[in-house]
Amino acid sequence: MSTPRMSHNLFKLALIAVFFLGTAVFQGCDSMMSSNETEQEIAVPATQYDKFRHAHLLDRAIKYDDTAKKTGDGTLGIVFAIDPQKVLDRYKVLDRYKVLDRYKVLDRYKVLDRYEYENVFNGFAITVDDALGLAEYNEFLDMLANDDEILWFEPDFNMDMPTSNPFAGSSGQQIPWSVAAIGGTTSLTRSGDNGGSVDVDLYILDSGVTNPDLNIVESIDFRDYANNSADVNGHGTHIAGIAAAVDDQDGVVGIAPGARIHNYKVLNDEGGTDVSVAIAAVEHILTKKLAEPSTPMVVNMSLGEDIGMTSYTALDEAVKAASDAGVIFVVAAGNQGINAETVTPAHMEEVITVGSYHAAGIFSPFSNYGVHVDLLAPGEGIVSLAPDADGTSAHVQMTGTSMATAHVSGAAALYLAKRPEATPAEVRDFLLGKAKSFVVGAPTGTTSQSVWVGEADATFRDGFNAISFAGSDGLWDWKFDWKEFGESNGPSKGKVRVSDSSQCPTGMCLRIGGEYEGSKNRGVYRAVNLSSASEAYLSFNWRRHSDEGYYASKPAILEISRNGGSTWSTLVTFPNGRDGGDMNAAYFDITSYASADTRIRLSTNKAGEGEGYLYFDDFQIDWKD
To answer: pLDDT tens-digit profile of 180-190?
Structure first.
């Protein structure tokens, strides 16, 4: 459905009066444009208007028919707020349209209505056309500035989406490395155990959401020029999948599996939008919150813009009003590698602003930074859902603070499932208190804390981020490095190695191949101390690569020992064959094997030279006392 708009009979074609909250286009956080990257200078009136906010963005609020700005008249987008008390004093009744009706129709300007705002602030969004084709609006701006019933007015701008790298999905469900890395496998719903869902509403303000692996309960297209909430771009579906993909046996699994997704499309298919469109969505959310104040709501805004100033915009005013009413906003810091203090809405105190880090726990160089960044989350090479209308759950990999933000939105939803009455401040305090400080390389003054949703007390993890058997990027140290058995060639060559093969979606992973005729086992093993664990869980991703398959007489296996390797139990026998897609997920409850010397062993043989390999990644053991 499309969002309601103002009645056209209230706007004469030449109704010059309304205010400008600009047509500058607002963009998704995976490629926000800096405010000083302007393409054309538009003259700002010499008079300095106290209520003309963000006048430096005026040139970015002019729309032309082509990107070279050579055709078309150049229409001006405007958003303004009115003073209800002055309207009441003048007309003895609070009729907001009186402010618009009393403007005289001018021959030069045509005014078209776009949106009416009532709850986020009292105001309107319009477009203004200079009938002379000169795109000169000084006279119009003078009228706004001199109208004592208008509180403020300002321009409206644009954002882009990230470049995605699609790859074919495999059968079965995948636990993305990023979900496991922040404790998702031991969270409230234990992402990846094919069960559990989160009873919370999650609003995705993005390019649309389209995938059967999501619990979509509402879809609205807020663009005033379209009525199609489907996701063509892919950004919105990817975000929703990270936050809340259903925990079944297909697709991927999200941080808050099965949370109710409200698909609020505000971005066009190229990833841009006007700020007034985003404000319209926030207006709708606030209206719902006021009608149902006890219903928890989480809003994911993986979009934003560098405006070059720290002062609030109209969008910030709208978000603040909704936050004050109890709506939780999680916002991307942005990808310009700058201080987030000038990025709207990331610079707001009322939102949870999220930066990005790599699988190795290193702060992403593209991520915006500074004191306004509240939390960090995985944002590089993130696997999630792609739009798919044929009943399958395709996967795609994307990078950006947009992806990081979705992890924190899922974390907020998990907390609200337990504490639905929590305020935005309480949600933020909880997430900050639970966060783990392990990210390195963040600029001075920027947090090193990663969001954490696990209920485990500690984590053993190896994401194989270096050509070494000594990897350890969890919160606890393994007893010793990976040790080989069978023919030993070292970590960088041979049948058992850490590989940077194209078979590793995250860049590097463990590759194991057995001896040619299958007369020997080859593999690796490693040990952990789980002596105090009351619960323990093992998760990892894996895939096969073999043209001929494995010998059935000696299949590839994963084993576990609770007595230092004296006896072994088989956890899984990997099937023969070849995987053509991304990695498969594996998840095991290993509580019964917890001891002071719990060991994990992987072994396989290969069916022919250069074939028959198994690839493993993101080995993780989570445990709690």
So the answer is: 788 777 665 55
